[in-house]
Here is the input.
Amino acid sequence: MKLVKHILTCLICIALAPTAMAFDFYSGGICYDVIGEREVAVVGAWQGVENCYEGSIILPEHVYFDDERMTVTTIADSAFWQSAVTEVQIPNSVTYIGVGAFAEATELSNVTLPMGLVTVSPYAFAGTAIENIAIPEGVRHIGTGAFAECAHLRTVFVPSGVQSIGASVFDDCFSLMEIYCAAANPPIVRGELTNIEDIDLVLPNARAEQAYRSSEQWNTERRFNYWSDEYFGYALHTEGTLEEDGFFCQPLGNHLAYRVYDRYGYQVALTAADRIYLPMVGFEDEYVVVPTNLMDDDEDGQLICHVPADIIEPSDVPQTTHPIITSYDGSIYIFGDNHGTWTEIYDVYGLLYYQRPTIKGHIDYLPGGRYYIVKVGDYAKKVFVR
Here is the structure.
């Protein structure tokens, strides 16, 4: 495994050398490359041989470049390699996380993966300080060495749809105690599960347990202790806190996974991180956090998380001669000294959607996924409402 890691490091260095400090644009502390029509990838922030990313990073779903709204769909190979990031929350717009994307980020302890992920790439989180990881339920393949040399990794949650696992995926994870595997059929191991000993493998039911016991790849002496129909229960009581950057931080922890649902009942996250960051918008919002092991949900232990409105105070609004017009989460917001000024909202084809004097607050119930021309008095601006 040490040899494999050495080869991986050499390959990453070769790949990085010609592109150091090369990126298309920079926004909110993150470097991006345009990779398709209105699609961007997060790339490394290199200064010489140092990757400058550090601390807690909440990646956005969308960024703006040349007045175009771009969707963040990719984290490039080795983007956070050897960086000083401590936690990363990846948005659901991301569908691909590259080879070695977070490898050897030795301070990285908390990760929330996107719901649309299909593959965990080889060595994606190798050599990090992750303690618990919940793999999203759309993932079908876990690459070679994806979590190798994660010395603090204790609990892993594997979804029901996983079909294959690469070799040495948990190599040298000396703190690993339990794997919750919702896959009823043993995934194919492409290589060998090495350096795994005396791990509690929790399975959906007795039939699944028998299937794993009958598998030559999974039933190796002293490798696993098999469990099924395990009871668990845990109630969340810790209050969340407000963050300065417009997020509400809800503590989690306790080596469990958690499903997070929005006010409409849609699952927006699955995480085993110590905390989840929920966006604050222009109105009070509500989320439901449910403990889970991917096979059973503990609805009795769920938490209703009330996220306060993110109110922009007058002192926070830049002093300009025109109103501040912006859009967030399906609504249009207008700020500034323009109370009573006549406001009109048109689509790009000239169809009038809204017409009345401006009042404090926001304008919602507009069809999403399109641009609008917002005219306040003599000032007009084009905004996109998702």
